[in-house]
Amino acid sequence: MKTALTSAEKIWREHVIASLGDGVDLLHIDRHFLHELSGAMSFKGLDAANRRVFDRGLTFATIDHVVDTYTGRGLTSSTPGGDGFLRAFVDGVQRHKVTFFGIEDARQGITHVIAAEQAIALPGTTFVCGDSHTTTVGSVGALAWGIGSTDGEQVLATQTLTMSKPRTMRVRFDGVLPPGTSAKDMVLKLISTIGADGATGYAVEFAGNVMRVLPISARATICNMASEMSARFGFVPCDDTTLDYLYGRPFAPSGAAWESAARYWRSLASDDEATFDAEVAIDCDDLEPFVTWGTSPEHAMPISSVVPEESRRLDAVARADFFRALSYMDVTPGQRMVGLPISGAFIGSCTNSRLDDLREAARVLRGRRVADGVQAICTPGSSAVKRDAEAEGLDAVFKASGFEWREPGCSLCMSAGGESFLPGSRIVSSTNRNFEDRQGPGVRSHLASPATVAASAIVGALADPRPYLQ
Fold it and tell me: Mean pLDDT per segment of 10 residues, for the chain of length 470 residues?
């Protein structure tokens, strides 16, 4: 048995109920978060089997995916069939009596935003939700991953899941983060370096001197996009930043329990002598704002660069995907990204909708106007984020610049609320996926940081945000 362990190995070991053979373990699940899409289906399966929720105190629920963000607060959805999901979900939540952050609740918001915001996710916990970007809450040191509705039903009924232990990877972000760049640029550089499948089967620990100085909001952006490089988990072990963030939050321990928990959480750091199955180092000294040119997050490059001449991979499938991406995005090798006209801009999603993200965009927007012909939208990640932003006057900055100021929810990250950008339009987005049709039929999405989205909205074309941040 290894005497020196990585953080992921320590947390995994603490949650194994039984080893089932062939490398498969039965794990205890500490927290389970539901939203209306996956949650409604999990409740349906639970009811069909005449089962109850095993531990209501460990299950939480909110509404975020298909609820409208532009019609005011109400249980409405423009998504076909969305109203049915909402009603079925609310009925299931009320019937099974789990903690619910409903649409009128002051704590409502995107699952992966409010899980950390409320300290439902805690260091060293196992955390699941029916959404692939559940890795986001690894920002506070949890092992968190997305599950399907059938697995969701199992967690509701037993508070357990079976899983094979993943390999371990450490990603170090070294150097110093240059002015005008952000966590979004860091993670896009990482994915462009190792590829969209570069972390398949790994529990990825983010480390390095740059990570150590990042706030939880920035760590959340990086952990969020761990799923875009196919990682099973993406997390940052507990440190002073984690403890400062969690202290005093609603579901965090308090008093003597807090002191005990903090000591335990710190003990979960990777041992100095621990070995990882893979190591990746990203130098941030010369980092520039990044933007995607294609239809995968791995199609990312510095905004000052040009569309590459050919796929960095040699296999036939990758080459076919490369040329399909060029065609869909209507770009050509050698074409510059700066100056490419856009007609839409979106700031929001579980990737970049926290208060720090909105502040970053507002720095660019203050005193400036969105270009004619650009539809610009901002959707805060939670009701708390929205309140805090309005208390600082950030909403006034967004509105004065020409951005729409929305209610919290997933919104145009994936046309979840039933709306989309105009078919065939080109937009820049602070979200995590730029797949074909992700934000509407034929919509061409370029991923970037909130600052880059804001600068591009002002120019009416993809733009470097650094001149606006000086």
Answer: 90 98 96 93 93 96 92 83 89 95 96 98 98 97 96 97 97 97 98 97 97 98 98 98 98 98 98 98 98 98 94 78 96 97 98 98 98 98 98 98 96 79 96 96 97 98 96
Based on C-alpha coordinates, what's the Rg of the chain?
21
Q: What pLDDT is stored for residue 417 in this prediction?
A: 59
338, burial (CB in 10 Å: exposed 0-12, middle 13-18, buried 19+): middle
Long-range contacts of 79-88 (CB under 8 A, 24+ apart): 79/416, 79/417, 79/418, 80/418, 82/417, 82/418, 85/36, 85/37, 85/40, 86/36, 88/40, 88/43, 88/44
Q: What is d(CA 188, CA 432) in angstroms, rounded to the nearest whole number?
A: 10
Instruction: Phi first, then psi: give them for residue 429, nearest 5 degrees.
Output: -140, 145
Fold type of domain 7-164 = Aconitase; domain 3 (3.30.499)
Q: Where are the domains of the chain?
A: 7-164, 167-283, 291-468
Query: Which residues fall within 8 angstroms of residue 317, CB to CB, at 6 or more apart?
Result: none
CB 83 within 8 A of CB 76: yes
Report which residue type is found at 315: D
Could you write out the DSSP letters of every residue in 143-168? EEEE--HHHHHHHHHHSEEEEEPPEE
Question: Tokens at residue 412, please?
Answer: 């145009």
> How far is residue 320's CA from residue 338's CA, in Å, rounded to a whole number?
26
Judged by DSSP in three states, 64 sits in: coil
Q: Do the beta carbons of residue 199 and residue 231 sit within 8 Å?
A: yes
pLDDT value at residue 85: 84
| Residue 315, pLDDT score | 82
The Cβ-side half-sphere exposure at 243, using a 13 Å CA radius, reads 13
| 3-state secondary structure at position 440 | coil
Give the rounded distance of the alpha carbon of 103 from its chain centre: 21
| Domain 167-283: homologous superfamily in CATH | Aconitase, Domain 2 (3.40.1060.10)
Q: How many CB atoms lie within 10 A of CB 319?
A: 13
Q: Tell whether pTM > 0.85.
A: yes
